[in-house]
Amino acid sequence: MKKLRALIIDDERLAREEIKEHIRNCSFIELIGEAADADEAEDQIRSLQPDLIFLDIQMPERSGLDLLESLDEIPAVIFTTAYDQYAAKAFDLNALDYLVKPVRKERFEQAVAKLRMKLTSPENRSYRQNIFTREGDRFYFIKAEDIYLIESAGNYARLHTRERKHYIRRSLNQLEKSLDPDTFFRVGRTEIINVHFIKEIVNQPKGKIMVTLDSGDTIEVSGRQSAAFKNKNMI
Q1: pTM
Q2: CATH, domain 144-231, list 3.40.50.300, 2.40.50.1020, 2.30.29.30, 3.30.200.20
Q3: Is 34 in contact with 81 (CB distance < 8 Å)?
Q4: What is the predicted pLDDT for the residue at 124?
């Protein structure tokens, strides 16, 4: 397995040095940068494209959670925090793991071992693999492959999964550009579907088609997009 390219994000210099020392003793992680705040981190994530970030949850101005909410594509995350209450929240986020400061050698080794097991299969980073969203005081990582329908909802997009509906402050145009076009198809002005959830396709008058998803949702595809759908050899 190739080395994982990691970025440390923490407003405390000593905390960054602590993680760096642990990384030096880890043969499969390569440190490619560090950032002292969310703004700097956002720039580095977009330019360096790390595989992994060690992310402090609580930082001045913008928190680690604020940072995640601003990203189109989220690397693997191991949270770092000085407070156990935020560690519990990290698990709600389905993060790979969390580390409570000061970080013990044993806990770091456990976290990176868990990471290595989870990342044995390389992902296609060309398209968004997961979506981060916050709803009130709850935070979620949503796997793109679990979304069967995306609908426009004013200034938000509504993401449908088998478990629940989520809202994200993104337009359908923004999401469409970041999602795998072999999986997600824009059926009209206000909806995108995951083609892997299609249960039935019925031809309609004037060349249109009607799509029924596993969820039971029935969606009429616009005339223009019906032609595009057929040209993609999906029916």
Answers
A1: 0.69
A2: 2.40.50.1020
A3: no
A4: 45
